[in-house]
Amino acid sequence: MDTTTLQSVTAAQWDAEIVPQLTDYIRIPAKSPHFDPQWAAHGHIERVVRQAESWVRAQPVAGLAVEIVRLPGRTPVLFFEAPARGAARDGTVLLYGHLDKQPEMSGWRADLGPWLPKYEHGKLYGRGGADDGYAVYASLAALGAVQAQGLPHARCVGLIETCEESGSYDLPAYLDHLAPRMGAVDFVIGLDSGCGDYERLWVTTSLRGLAAGTLTVEVLTEGVHSGDASGVVPSSFRVARALLDRLEVAASGRIVPPDFHAPIPDERIEQARIAADLLGDVLVRKYPFAGGTAPMASDRTEALLNRAWRPALSVTGADGLPPIAQAGNVLRPGTALKLSLRLPPTTAGDAATAAMKRLLEADPPHGAKVSFAPDQAATGWNAPPTAPWLAAALEHASRAFYGKPAGAMGEGGTIPFMGMLGRSFPRAQFLITGVLGPQSNAHGPNEFLHVPYAKKLTACVAAVIAAHGSSS
User: Fold this and answer.
1) What three-state secondary structure class fits 382?
2) 286-336 tens-digit pLDDT
């Protein structure tokens, strides 16, 4: 492998083709179905899938076939395949990504916006470019670079979905439908994860699960004067707060019930220790803390384990609370809170969500009307032991294109597809990686794609595909 040529070729394709493609992609508000129930009528998901399909068809990959696969009533997927060339093995490489996006979110810089792409100092700003519209483009660029050098590769298939940000609820049907065409997958590359910094190849070794839904507390059928009712009618907010105390210790953020915890493997603890040393203060500095806010753990290794292996609760939305400027002296009839409970990778999402519902609805304070409506349940993923060929390939690629050794750590996010593939292909090896590094802010304001890092990551993926094709 000529690593210098490989890096220059992939970088040139990013500049000439991929950045313009992603610039157009960012302009399209292709929100995931969970955030746009009328996605089919609006047509934005259709536009991004067709845009990607058109680009894939134009790639100089020998034997490449691509199509948009549709099942009735479900979001579409983009499926492509390329036959093996000189590979020493009969397996199949599965390349995964998605094209649906998170919603707008407030707080964008005045000159930026979710659907307003801007390329500045190597960063492409806008919703979805890094999370992870780039995946299909990087995957095909990597495969094309392998073929351009005449390097071997196994049969490759790509599965690009449009339901990931809604929990991939359409994916199982497509996995069943496409199973005969996917074949014996023995290596999965997923480009929908993160990186600890922009200085090396980072490999994700685990992903947390998720139990999410809406907690609703009702105490009245209509609002009443707070001076008349407070002290007699319980506050719906206080009832909700008391219910959350069943889940979480407010002072520390520790999740109380054992149902939501799992043992942390020794290997993952050691990886967290090494990653903490590699990252140093970047681990904390990457977050935009306000004022004197301090992290929940001062020890960096513990912070990484909190982020990757321990459950944590976030309240991500609320109904029933008027804006402060319109908040009169009224005891409100109810409060609804959107809850997102991240789970350890090995905790079953469905069981945890059911336990969460039982916990919150049982014996409500003051007999208030309480309900918890789940909307997402996902089991996380823990990588199998890394095969020697893959460990060597990852280290070689990181040193060749970044000049530093590779890093590994668990990620705090959830990619339900990984758990599905882990169950479908229990003997497969996994390269789960991505471009979501410090300040990239996926799902939030000012999301960006770090283009120089993505260029090198594309070269790394090409090198690992070639190493897979050469191994036996």
Assistant:
1) strand
2) 888 999 999 999 999 999 999 999 999 999 999 999 999 999 999 999 999
pLDDT band at 88 (very low <50, low <70, confident <90, very high): confident
- 136 within 8 A of 99, measured Cβ to Cβ: yes
Which pLDDT band holds residue 398 (cuts at 50, 70, 90)?
A: very high
Task: Take residue 399 and report the two structure tokens written for it.
Answer: 């040193």
Distances (CA, A) of 429 to 25, 36, 145, 302, 435: 31, 35, 22, 27, 20
Instruction: Decide if 406 contacts 203 (C-beta within 8 A).
Output: yes
Residues 6+ apart with CB under 8 A from 117: 22, 23, 26, 27, 124, 125, 126, 129
192 pLDDT more than 90: yes
Q: Does 132 sit behind a cis peptide bond, omega within 30 degrees of 0 on the bond before it? A: yes
CA gap 223, 209 in Å, rounded? 38
Give the C-alpha distances (Å, rounded to integers) separating 369 from 234, 410, 451.
Answer: 12, 39, 50
pLDDT confidence bin for 274, thresholds 50/70/90: very high
Neighbours of 105 (CB within 10 A): 14
C-alpha–C-alpha distance, residues 437 and 313, integer Å: 22
Question: How many C-beta atoms lie closer than 10 Å to residue 332's C-beta?
Answer: 19
Q: Strand pairing partners for 127?
A: none
Contacts of 319 (CB under 8 A, 6+ apart): 335, 336
Q: Is the dihedral of CA 179, 181, 185, 190 positive or negative?
A: negative
Q: Is the pTM of this model over 0.85?
A: yes
